[in-house]
Amino acid sequence: MYTITDLKPGRAISLDGEPYLILTSQFGRKSQSKANMQTKLKNLKTGAIVARNFQGSEKIEPADVGYRHVQYLYGGNGTRTFMDLETYDQFEFTDESLGEIVDFLVDGLECDALLYEEHPIGIKLPVTVVMEVTETMPGVKGDTATGGTKPATLQSGASINVPLFINAGDKIKVNTETWSYVERAQD
């Protein structure tokens, strides 16, 4: 069982039989009242986001979630297909349920599936992924890494800003949490 001080972002808890992921938590105490923890929680089954305050001595049950290594296979008609790398079972998510991460899914990408009661309920991307730049303005001789940036379209269709020296066809590392250029990828 968790106490309110264990409620940190990224932890999964169970409320009323439903799994929730803690998005934010803020500890508080007003003069002589009991301590409390203000949290924002994401329901891992429905995707709904709720705010909840937990009081001082309240006990919170951890959710039975786990991760399994999976590979992204392909997408089409609004769905994305993944394969469990242990059992080779395939499963799908809709683009809507995955949200913004679809912009970083490229065939063959290995990532982690979030499991609740052994059923996949979400995907966790690696912090960085290697993607090919398919479209950008050409680089100019003399452009440096410390200069400006320009927009670039990646192989998945996502658009990010890259340094001026990056050209179409270059492979780059992209931070999936900040949607930002990290470095040119090594071949």
Question: What are the key terms here?
Answer:
5-stranded antiparallel sheet; SH3 type barrels; 2% helix; mainly beta; 3 domains; 52% strand; globular; OB fold (Dihydrolipoamide Acetyltransferase, E2P); 187 residues; 1 helix
Would you mind describing this structure in some detail?
- With 187 residues, the protein is an all-beta fold.
- It has three domains: 59 residues, SH3 type barrels (Roll); 60 residues, OB fold (Dihydrolipoamide Acetyltransferase, E2P), CATH 2.40.50; 57 residues, OB fold (Dihydrolipoamide Acetyltransferase, E2P) (Beta Barrel), CATH 2.40.50.140.
- It is 2% helix and 52% strand.
- The strands form three sheets. A five-stranded antiparallel sheet has the order 4-3-2-1-5, with no helix packed on it. It has a five-stranded antiparallel sheet with strand order 8-7-6-9-10.
- Strand 3 and strand 4 form a beta hairpin.
- The N and C termini lie far apart (47 Å).
- 19% of the residues are buried.
- The model has no long low-confidence stretch (mean pLDDT 87).
